[in-house]
User: Fold this.
Amino acid sequence: MKIIVCIKEVVDPALSLDFGLSNRVVFREGLPLRLNPNDAAALAMALGLKSPDEAAQVEITLISIGPERVESYLKNGLALGADRAVRIWGEDFTNLSSHQKARLLTGALSFYGADLVFTGAMSLDTGNGQVGPLIAGWLGLPCTGDVVSIELDEEQNSINLTRDAGRGEREKVQCPLPTIITVRGEGKLPYATLDRLIESKSGEVMLLTPADLGISNEELHNDPTRVTDLVYPRPRPRKVPPLDSSLPAFHRILQLLEGGISKRKGLMLKGSSEELAERLFELLKEEGVIRPATGP
Assistant:
């Protein structure tokens, strides 16, 4: 079985990205980068299909679009068990759209051929989620999105998938091969052995250009899609306890803005040591912390 995993480099999501009201692009210059988590989940899922007993029957090829620095992710994938690494790059490849990336990856898939293609469900920088379905449309293959687990059915030459249907629901899907799936999840990659890490440092990463894939500059830049705006994500709703219905509407609104929890009122006690001790004793009795003894 031939498997291709498409991986992508993204801006570290822990940072505050400069985009929104006045800009239509995400600025990347000078920001730390990392492997897209959904792509890491896709790679982990593909490696799970390559058991030691059947290693010769499963061949995994990693493909990434990017400059020379993305070879570090590709070589790390080789150390983890991938068989081949491919990098696609060319002149004037800045700010490629999802349509252009999908076109390049489609050319690479046609060049190598695959029974099963993995992509991430979406990336953390743009979150378009278009590359996988666009590839499937160009190749005329079925595509299943938001996959969280996979099982091979060799007798039926198909795969059994579990996908995230949203709102905590899971959906079982059976799909014939060849097919394309987009994976959702964080994905914990296994640790590579020291020997494999050292060996991968000198591993070969094949460089392909659009010309190698039979794609002209005119065809690549004939992009019908346009990004018209980027908006901030919706904040996650915050659960609040039930409000006190006996309060006026104004105070209930204040409670809602404060998370439904009223701020505790502090009390400052003044006086001599004896007076403070006596007043504290009375407060503890009023709050029910100290109760008078009952009975003999």
The radius of gyration is 28 Å. Residues 192 and 214 are 35 Å apart (CA to CA).
